[in-house]
Amino acid sequence: MKKSLLKVRVMDFITSTAILPLLFGCVGIFSLFKLLQHMRMKAYLRNAVVIITGATSGLGRECARVFFAAGAKLVLCGRNREALEELARELAASRVTEVQTHKPYIVTFDLADPGAIVAATAEILQCFGYVDVLINNAGISYRGAIIDTTTDVDKRVMETNYFGPVALTKAILPSMIKRRHGHIVAISSIQGKISIPFRSAYAASKHATQAFFDCLRAEMEQYEIEVTVISPGYIHTNLSLNAITADGSKYGVMDKTTAQGRRPMDVARDVLAIVGKKKKDVILADLLPSLAIYLRTLAPGLFFSLMASRARKEQKSKNS
Ligand SMILES: NC(=O)C1=CN([C@@H]2O[C@H](COP(=O)(O)OP(=O)(O)OC[C@H]3O[C@@H](n4cnc5c(N)ncnc54)[C@H](OP(=O)(O)O)[C@@H]3O)[C@@H](O)[C@H]2O)C=CC1
Ligand SMILES: CCCCCCCCCCCCCCCC(=O)OCC(=O)COP(=O)(O)O
After folding, report:
1. Where in the sequence is the domain holding 199, given as residue range(s)?
2. Is residue 3 part of a domain?
3. Candidates 105, 162, 202, 234; catalytic one
4. Is 10 within a domain?
5. What is the pLDDT of residues 172-196, one digit of tens each?
6. What is this structure's pTM?
7. Ligand nearest to the CA of 240
8. Which ligand is nearest to the CA of 230?
9. Are residues 92 and 139 both part of a single domain?
10. Is residue 202 among the annotated active site residues?
11. What is the value of ipTM here, to two decimals?
12. Number of domains the chain contains
């Protein structure tokens, strides 16, 4: 049959049957579903009390911008009060017309200090009475060979990336359980799913994060508390500059991979949508890291060989 004749026959079929109205109906229902989802997401975050840790820089700072614009009552956390105050001033000066915005509240504490976490939680609960969303975003990275790394460094990374967020989450949880409402978010990493050489402490802390919050999700379902783990790939932030090395000194280098990473503002917008949609576990990365995760699961032997070869190459370039 000629191509043009086939086209005419197909068009005839479409117009003479109920396919066209059905097609329009499906598109209409889909658009309506999307609109309702968007409205529900906006209502979920409007006036919600949202704690963001690590709001002084990078992803946390951009999350603060997008959650502020969504009408959340923000609690900005970090160690540097001046940086948080500057951000709060900037947010207050920004013009958001769509929703009513709220002056952010600032709390400074070090995630490596359990006493400070308890005091900060008490302050937040006294001020707001409750917390709707806790975003465990603060974190520190690390570069070094296991053989050279002091246990103090391993502990420092675990304290900031794992024990701190766990302690903060545990401090907030009872108030959420009482209300049978709340949402805990953990910003993990692709390195919470796969481990790459010379990142042992960081990858271990992110794997532990994934495991803890997966357990939490299961335990909290009965209280209607949501748990979301987000695993981003590289983001263009100060993470590598602030990373610590095997002896605990600052790495202080903007790695090429980090510099070429996604814009923190774009990742923050994704975080907002993921939280608004109450997703449970999301990988926010390009194809290669996503494939690497599948490879680790489906062909671990091959994945381990690739990582060993990567380690050899990195070691060689360090020695030369
Ligand atoms: N950048 C990337 O490529 C990726 C980042 N991530 C994750 O994203 C999250 C945010 O990192 P990013 O924005 O990139 O990095 P930044 O270094 O820009 O920000 C890290 C934030 O964590 C805070 N922080 C660090 N240590 C402590 C501590 N002991 N107590 C309290 N706060 C602390 C810092 O605050 P301050 O020092 O001012 O107190 C800062 O606000 C981290 O969990 C990171 O692992 C995940 C995947 C990729
Ligand atoms: C079927 C073919 C699969 C090919 C897979 C090849 C394996 C390639 C390995 C890719 C490794 C990607 C690592 C991504 C790491 C990442 O995104 O980490 C995010 C961070 O947390 C960055 O922190 P850092 O301090 O390490 O900069």
Report:
1. 42-285
2. no
3. 202
4. no
5. 999 999 999 999 999 999 999 999 9
6. 0.93
7. 2
8. 1
9. yes
10. yes
11. 0.98
12. 2
